[in-house]
Amino acid sequence: MEMNSKEVLSVDSLRIGYGSGKNENALLPPLNASANFGELIAVIGRNGIGKSTLLRTLTGLQQPLAGDIFYYWKNIRDYTRIELAQKVGYISTEIVKVSNMRVYDLVSLGRFPHTNWIGKVEMRDHEVILDALKKTSMTSFAQKFVSELSDGERQKAMIARILAQDTGIMVMDEPTAFLDVASKYEILHLMHLLSGSGTKTIIFSTHELQMAISQADKIWLILENELIEGAPEDLMLAGEFDHLFDSSTVIFNSGDGTFSFRSDTRGAIHLEGEGNKRYWTEKAINRAGFKVTKEKTLPFILLPTESNFFWQLVSENEVQKFKSLYELIGYLSNSAIGII
Amino acid sequence: MKTSEQTDTATVKLSGRKVNLIFTSLFMLLALFLILDIFLGSVSIRPSEVLNAFFTNSHNGFQTIVLKFRLPKAITALLVGIALSLSGLQMQTVFRNPMAGPYVLGISSGASLGVAFVILGFSATITPDSLTGLGNWILVAASWLGAGAVMLLIMVISSRVKDIMTVLILGIMLSSGISAVVTIMQYFSNETMLKAYVIWTMGSLGNLTVSQLNVLLISVSAGIILSLFSSKMLNALLLGENYAGSIGLNVKFARAVIFICTSILAGSVTAFCGPIGFIGIAVPHIVRILFKTSDHKILIPGTILMGGAVMLASDILSQLPGSETVLPINAVTSLIGIPVVIWVILRNRKYSGSF
């Protein structure tokens, strides 16, 4: 095996699943993957394909059926529980519901593998906890009860806990799943900062493909028959994401990483105009079932300009004006106009 | 940023001072109830006579009452309160179920089955009162085994059934089933054994011989030491088994330790004092409300003090100071415990699944 000094995790012919012997139920074919120091890695795959099982296996909560996992070139089987907990932290989708637990106490549980037999928080632990709270901007929440936090705040507290655990690798199962849009980006930004500063390697599963493509350093794409790893852009260019979708109904646009539904094209239409307005008008027209063509058509659409605030549908003998795209699309969807 | 960090350190330390204040108050309350329990009783003895009984060798009837009856009974109440409350706290955390307790989940019933086997099953000469030395340990061991068997069943059930109320109902079913078995055993036993057993089931703090008190003291002390040892594990288990495992806890080992500890605590008490209800479930909740924490480093000593105090108070109330009537201890603990349990159930509808 080629030695890569930056490699912190190497997965070698790993078989994951449940049971043993005759009842063995392997979820996927043997997997191979790796992670380098400071990378943000998104694990992508359809529901039920085995993402959570893979992450649980990586964390040591579940035994692999076969194959090996190496952290820092040492087999996971050769680590004690405490040693492993000092290398890898874990956040699952399970929501922690404990009344009377303060954020400080939750974060201090991250010190578990570092404290003495009774779990006494020493001054050094206290400093690590305060630092974790600061990094997640949860300092002012320290004395609040976990049960009083919003979903986003609770997730930040969970990340603070994993920071207090002081592991080089963080494994997170759908860390943004139940969050609103603002919290989602806040959490993602935090993950980006932690990995970007080069101190943490983060492996997280997600269903937000666009977010993963724009933020992750590497993607582990889990398909029925293999795990494909690479930079998001490499996978885009190779068209690998297409395998995720049922190609009869959803089209993944490898050009810009967006999706559209396959519907029968009602025709093509020409757009005149440039810029931001053209981009969004194109989107709206696609949604209405029309393609945009470079060839001149009749009718064609004239985009608003500085002197003209209306979208204009120009046909042979009349010009119709629309105040918004909503009106334009409403008209186009209902009209039986014979656009080529 | 420097200043905000300093204030935070200050807040943490301030709450530490508050915790110490509550501990001191609890300790004083416990001491007060212990003294009251010795000074008050169905026979009214003047305080000076009580002190005489301790410090002079007067050999009168008062001294016998104080040293041979009241003192052992007060110590028993203290140990029983500590043991039941600690086992309740541990069960609530390990099952992540606010309704868990040795009585409601049938652990005490399991222990009674063990006791029933010894009293009803083996020899007409063995009764809780006549047991000495090795016999006491046999009785206790049977009780541990019974408690442990039910504990094991509940663990299997709650690993499959996540809904806490379902687990609770199954616990009640289990208790009823065990009662049925005991009833059948009673049907086939002779009158003397039956009488001994029925008296035992009424629950009493006052019938322990010195050697039984010694066995109880040793068992409960072992339980207390094990619980102190398990506080870090219990804290980790608050997060659930997955998180506990991910921060480095050996979940199977932790469960085994807590399992043994709970069986010893609940089993020993049940062996000598009969099934005593609702202390184990109620006290941990009172302690959580008082300290507003989930940290077992605080909850365990808090539960020890509060459990002892509540049980001593129950004992004082059961003697109805000033009268000669003595109420069954089980009635008093139920009246104290049940309101707390109802409050927890009502509150829990809001924060479903949390405790």
CATH class of the largest domain in chain A: Alpha Beta
Order of SSEs of chain B: HHHHHHHHHHHHHH
Q: What is the distance, rounded to the nearest whole angstrom, between the alpha carbons of the first and last residues of chain A? A: 59 Å
- Give the CATH architecture of chain B: Orthogonal Bundle
How much of the residues of chain B is beta strand, in percent? under 5%
Description:
The complex is a heterodimer of chains A (340) and B (355). With 340 residues, chain A is of the alpha/beta class. Chain A has two domains: 240 residues, P-loop containing nucleotide triphosphate hydrolases (Rossmann fold, 3-Layer(aba) Sandwich); 68 residues, no CATH class. Chain A is built from ten helices and 19 strands. In chain A, the strands form five sheets. Chain A has a six-stranded mixed β-sheet, with helices on both faces. A five-stranded mixed β-sheet of chain A has the order 16-15-17-18-19. In chain A, strand 2 and strand 3 form a beta hairpin. In chain A, helix 4 crosses helix 5 and helix 5 packs parallel to helix 6. Chain A is elongated and about 85 Å long. Chain B has one domain: ABC transporter involved in vitamin B12 uptake, BtuC, CATH 1.10.3470.10. Helix content of chain B is 76%, strand content 0%. In chain B, helix 3 crosses helix 13. The longest helix of chain B has 38 residues. The radius of gyration of chain B is 21 Å and the shape is globular. Chain B starts with a helix and ends in a 7-residue tail after the last helix. Classes of the chains: A alpha/beta (340), B mainly alpha (355). Chains A and B meet through helix 2, strand 8, helix 3 and helix 4 of A and helix 1, helix 9 and helix 10 of B.
